[in-house]
Amino acid sequence: MKKSILLLAISLICINSFATETKLMVRAKAKDAKFVGSSIGGAYVMVRNAMNNNILAEGLTTGSTGNTDLIMKSSHDRYTQLSEESTAGFMAVVDIDQPTFVRVEVLSPMNRKNAQVQASTELWLIPGKDILGDGIVLEIPGFIVDILKPNTHQYIALESIPETGLEIAANIVMMCGCPIQEDGIWDSKLMEVKALVYKDGEPLGEIALKNPSQNTFTGQLEITEAGYYQITVYAYNAKTGNTGVETINYVVRG
Questions:
Q1: How far apart are CA 28 and CA 90, in angstroms?
Q2: Keywords assigned by UniProt (predicted)?
Q3: What whole-number distance in Å separates Cα of residue 171 and Cα of residue 30?
Q4: Nearest to 211 by CA among 184, 178, 247
Q5: Of the four, 35, 86, 132, 247, which is 20 to 30 A from 192 by CA?
Q6: 167 and 147 in contact (C-beta within 8 Å)?
Q7: What pLDDT band is residue 15 in, cutting at 50, 70 and 90?
Q8: Per the confidence metrics, is the pTM higher than 0.70?
Q9: 3-class DSSP state for residue 14?
């Protein structure tokens, strides 16, 4: 019995002795914007063996969104590295003893469930051949849309709504958390933002939302009747193809 255990231990040591530590940098980058990092809660990364689906490494991207001038304001030649030492990423460290085909999965942004996008790619990892620098960069399209007013399942008295209408307000940012405003790097004038309104399950109309301040889009909805209301706010940039949506429901009581 002791001899069997000893032989097993020796076998495991021999197997592990051939395994080589291999590093893979993984980053998530918002479409038309910067990297997904700590300021928005990071992107969740999983590196799997594509053959058996076993997770080889997993964790969050951490760090800054990156250098704005380099990423957004400069033309890029071939081999230009967009990341810096402080730029958000996840360093996957795996031990492999032979070339291994892996699947890299990213769920981003981790803490914004209504806007999460899953992106993935596959590649070969070769023992001891690190993939560093920008590493593997997965693009995350879209906008993060949060409806601020009215609140989800809010009960609103009809008589309390002013003549100017019920205020609709939404907070909208890029998928990395980067700010949106008129004439900014992410220019709200290039975006179409509207609220689609439904009453008792039927379309009631749509309202264009304006951008009076950074990340904030507002409009006024005229309401004359009680009922069950639903608002869907969408953001759309025809130039980049980025889109974002959120829906809430509320009740107007007579």
A1: 9
A2: Signal
A3: 17
A4: 184
A5: 35
A6: no
A7: very low
A8: yes
A9: helix
Which whole number is the average pLDDT over 72-101?
96
How far, CA to CA in Å, does 38 sit from each of 59, 93, 176? 12, 20, 9
Tokens describing residue 29: 């980058």
Tell me how far the alpha carbon of residue 254 is from its chain's centroid.
40
Q: pLDDT digits over 178-206, tens only?
A: 999 999 999 999 999 999 999 999 999 99
The domains found in the chain, sorted by start residue, are 20-140 (2.60.40), 143-253 (2.60.40.2550)
Reading the block at residue 55, the tokens are 């997770």
Determine contact, residues 23/130, Cβ cutoff 8 Å: yes
Which residue's structure tokens are 């400069």? Answer: 74
Residues 46, 106: Cα–Cα separation, whole Å: 7
Q: What does the pLDDT look like over 96-146, one tens digit per residue?
A: 999 999 999 999 999 998 899 999 999 999 999 999 999 999 999 999 999
pLDDT tens, residue by residue, 158-168? 999 999 999 99
Distance from C-alpha of 62 to C-alpha of 55, rounded to nearest angstrom: 20
- Residue 157's contacts (CB-CB under 8 Å, 6 or more residues apart) are 252, 253
